[in-house]
Amino acid sequence: MLNQQPSLDLTFQALADPTRRAMVERLTQGSATVSELAQPLPMSLPAVMQHLAVLEASGLVRSRKVGRVRTCQLDIQVLRETERWLNQARLGWDRRMDRLGAFLHAIQLPQRQEDDTDS
Amino acid sequence: MLNQQPSLDLTFQALADPTRRAMVERLTQGSATVSELAQPLPMSLPAVMQHLAVLEASGLVRSRKVGRVRTCQLDIQVLRETERWLNQARLGWDRRMDRLGAFLHAIQLPQRQEDDTDS
DNA sequence: CTGTTGGTTAAGCATGCTCTTTAGTATCGT
DNA sequence: ACGATACTAAAGAGCATGCTTAACCAACAG
After folding, report:
1. Which nucleotide lies nearest residue B19, CA to C1'?
2. How far apart are CA A95 and CA A110, in angstroms?
3. Which run of H or E residues covers position B64?
4. Which tens digit of pLDDT belongs to each residue from B95-110?
């Protein structure tokens, strides 16, 4: 059930870099041109372009070029799918904890009763 | 507000590898020894150890050694924080969409009225 | 047409990642 | 004590990443 998307690799990889996360955070505030994305970042424009390429390869960001200006925007879908994987993983853990709790509860009460009858 | 944790780098990096995600998924089902983690994986034990080291460095997994057996378990906390970053990012986007929707709604009704008065 | 702006390509380099093999070191069962 | 088990440490091959600089191109502005 989990791990159906081969692009989870690309998405997590994309989000593993602080520069790219900063770009994503910027894009949650609305679409931006390449220059606008690059402006606060302490690196050359080509470096930013390469980060952008990684983000686009993962599907997190889409961009269109009009005239000589390329405008980028977030694609929320991939973000959701990634969120979902984490959620599923945590949910599996939670369910296990519930079962474990129920199990402990089920065997510990009888033990208590044994202790009571022993003492 | 976002991006406070330097360990987001390590966490996303850790989750970017399918082998490590498989290990995490296995660990949602309960703790496991190194050999148990390695058993379904198509690689040498040292390779698995290295993946485990990455997972431990990120804080996603903790492990203790008893005798000659090392037992690993998930630390849900880091998973939660990562989930939270994604959630925050998506929430920022959602809020923006809401504002945008409200804005469009606010200016489009007056425009309609203008159209109405013009025609 | 000419210069400037916004972006793109390519090459190169340092570093990091993933896996391997080889060679260990502790335990544990008998 | 001795072999088997479970892991660990070290070193290296080979490819991927994250930058850089140096060109280059296409679209506008005057």
Report:
1. C18
2. 23
3. strand B61-66
4. 988 888 887 888 766 6
